[in-house]
Structure formats: C-alpha cells, structure tokens
Amino acid sequence: MASKKLKVTLKRSMIGLSPKQEATVKALGLRRMNQQVTHEDTATVRGMIAKVPHVLQVSHEA
Q: In this protein, which residues make up the domain named Large ribosomal subunit protein uL30-like ferredoxin-like fold (predicted)?
C-alpha cells in the first residue's frame, strides 16, 4: 500500500519572511513562486508546513 503524499505549492513570495521561515521554505525544496513539490505525509513535513502556512498551498495527492 502506498503511503500518503502531500503536494506543496509556494503561493506567495519569500520576500519579507524571517530568515528562519525562508530556510524552512527552502528546506521543503521550494525556490520559486508556483513551484510544486511532493513530500511524504510525515510529522516532520507537517511541522514545517505549519511554520509557514501563509505562503504555502497544500493538497493531498491521489
């Protein structure tokens, strides 16, 4: 059985974010606006998303 995946999209610019928030977004693998990455649905990734929810859009991948 395949594990659950999350599709994360950077919807707002990183300009104006604190250095820690910017590092979190980069650690998720996002560099440009509207760029999408897919991650496993783990507690670690969920915690990173929770730190910068105002610049991300998260959806479940089928």
A: 6-54
